[in-house]
Write a structure and sequence with these properties.
The chain is α/β, with parallel strands linked by helices. Helices cover about 35% and strands about 25% of the residues. The strands form 7 sheets. Strands 15-18-19-14-13-21-22 form a 7-stranded mixed β-sheet, with helices on both faces. β11, α8 and β12 form a beta-alpha-beta unit. α2 packs antiparallel against α5, α3 packs antiparallel against α6 and α4 packs parallel to α5. The protein starts with 7 loop residues before the first strand and ends in a 19-residue tail after the last strand. Bound molecules: nicotinamide-adenine-dinucleotide. Nicotinamide-adenine-dinucleotide (NAD) binds next to α7 and α8.
């Protein structure tokens, strides 16, 4: 089955309207499943960023949106969730065509999760304590203090290409729940689903609340990070660019959330159920063909069960269905770009050069009818040591690096010996022991006997160079809020203003 999507030209989305880019230039969007051009999107520039930020700024400073009650915003978030479900088919088709994610996953997992992110926050803000009255204090005289949570202002939301809609919703939902306005910058290669999503949800929002500027990451991203009128940046992407984002944002002390790379390690204890582990570990690394930040890409296996588990992993890997992601029977689609496909193959080659063994896969795959697509075989690498490139660096492909260990302490040390700290896990029938190990692993998400299990009311984010700040539910809401204290004095008599005497000596 061939992916089908007709060529469409997407302008920018600014102040509630589709807007032509200043220089009238467009970039081609390629379908990674077959290498064909499926759309053109605006090649925006700094002037376009200025326009979008001005729209968001005016809407925040002069519009009603930031002053809506949580109850009013809750109703809007529910409407957005309903719109997502109503437009699920179109959004899913766009997402598959630009990102190469499989239709079965995007329809069955991503789109419901996107809607759920809005619904969870719609519910959360009904009871969230946006205003807290502190107990009346008699010191230095009767005072009332109110601590208020207010929206931060204009938020620049920069997303990566691997789960375009999900990563977007993880930022837009809390930003809107808090009452902010936003300028979105999707990944250069996967902008189409984002543009349509924003256009759809804008129908229930005032003009200027949501805006999108597409174009090259460096040009648009940097313009947003350095803009005087942007108050917060939420960034999902590589650690390399994340560091640059933090440096740029520091010049105006913008608030920053960084969701960056990962190199998840799963420890397989000798008592693990090997069949369950084999299925689960491969789910952990092959979902989205390995293009997930929190994938389980290092499998640390106890020496006593190593060979048996590797045999099972190879057998299951050879059964993986690779092909056109629009086919509902396909489990693994392509790499998102040709350049990324080559980078994954280079990592596999580096493993060979460093003395590891390619136990299965390792090659590019030609899919009938999609000959120009960027597909790679599911790949298991054994005899890996933790200092090899494939153990230290993010490959972002369907590649599992297997490392043997002999003691639990050694496994924990190997798991933590990496610059990243996004995810980790344990496979064991002894959950008490597994819980103990979980506490020693330095990562933001730990899974015991599973992987990729994220709750939209949970907290997701990184330790170490995987970033900081948390996304999902109330944990993301707080990072889109400023805290203000309003204190009121009830003392009218100037003689009783205890502290004033330090300035007015006539009162002493
Ligand atoms: P990337 O860092 O190259 O790009 C991310 C975004 O930043 C894109 O929109 C890009 O256009 C933009 N950008 C590029 N240069 C920029 C600059 N100089 N200033 C500002 N913005 C700039 O990452 P990618 O290749 O799109 O995505 C893959 C990476 O994202 C992987 O490292 C992956 O682990 C990470 N990721 C992390 C999470 C998470 O939640 N922690 C989720 C998904 C992906």
């Amino acid at each position: 089955m061939m992916s089908e999507y007709k060529l469409t030209r997407y302008p920018l989305f600014i102040n509630g309207a589709l807007t032509h880019p200043t220089h009238e230039q467009y970039i081609e969007v390629i379908n990674p499943a077959n290498g064909k051009v499926i759309a053109e999107v605006a090649n925006g520039c700094e002037v376009d960023v200025d326009k979008a930020v001005a729209a968001a700024r005016t809407c925040f400073d002069q519009g009603d949106w930031p002053n809506t009650t949580p109850d009013e915003r809750s109703k809007v978030l529910y409407k957005i969730a309903n719109l997502i479900i109503a437009n699920a088919h179109e959004l899913a088709a766009l997402e598959v065509a630009c990102s190469g994610g499989t239709i079965s996953r995007i329809k069955g997992l991503d789109i419901p999760a996107v809607a759920d992110l809005f619904m969870k926050l719609a519910e959360e803000i009904k009871t969230f304590q946006f205003v807290e009255n502190l107990p009346l204090t008699p010191l230095p005289e009767p005072l009332h203090s109110q601590v208020r949570k207010e929206p931060i202002g204009v938020c620049g939301l920069i997303t990566a290409w691997n789960f375009p809609l999900l990563l977007l919703a993880m930022k837009v939902a809390p930003a809107l729940a808090a009452g902010n306005t936003v300028v979105v910058k999707p990944a250069t290669t996967t902008p189409t689903s984002t543009l349509r999503f924003i256009e759809i949800i804008s129908t229930v929002l005032p003009d200027g609340v949501v805006n999108v500027v597409t174009g090259p990451g460096q040009r648009i991203g940097e313009a947003l990070c350095e803009h005087q009128d942007v108050d917060k940046i939420s960034f999902t992407g590589s650690t390399r660019v994340g560091i640059a984002v933090q440096q740029m944002a520091a010049k105006t002390l913008k608030r920053v959330t960084l969701e960056l790379g990962g190199k998840g390690a799963a420890i397989v204890m000798p008592d693990a159920d090997l069949e369950r582990t084999a299925y689960g570990a491969l789910f952990g690394v092959y979902l989205n063909s390995g293009q997930a930040c929190e994938s389980g890409t290092r499998l640390l296996v106890h020496e006593s069960i190593h060979d048996e588990l590797v045999d099972q992993l190879i057998a299951l890997s050879n059964d993986m269905v690779i092909g056109d992601p629009m086919d509902p029977g396909v489990a693994m689609g392509p790499m998102t770009t040709a350049a990324h496909c080559q980078s994954v193959l280079d990592y596999i080659e580096s493993a060979r050069e460093q003395g590891a063994t390619i136990a299965c896969g390792g090659e590019r795959v030609e899919v009938a009818g999609c000959e120009e697509g960027f597909y790679i075989q599911p790949t298991i690498i054994t005899n890996v040591t933790n200092n090899m490139k494939v153990a230290q660096e993010e490959i972002f492909g369907p590649v599992l690096s297997i490392i043997k260990f002999s003691t639990t302490e050694q496994a924990i040390e190997i798991a933590n010996d990496n610059i990243y700290g996004l995810s980790a896990g344990i496979w064991s029938e002894d959950v008490v022991q597994a819980q103990g190990i979980a506490q020693k692993l330095r990562a933001g998400s730990i899974w015991i006997n599973d992987w990729h299990m994220m709750r939209t009311d949970g907290a997701f984010g990184g330790y170490k160079q995987s970033g900081y700040g948390r996304e999902f539910g109330k944990y993301s809401l707080t990072s889109y809020l400023e805290t203000k204290t309003i204190t009121t004095s009830f003392e009218h008599d100037k003689e009783k203003k205890t502290f004033h005497k330090f300035v007015h000596k006539t009162l002493a």
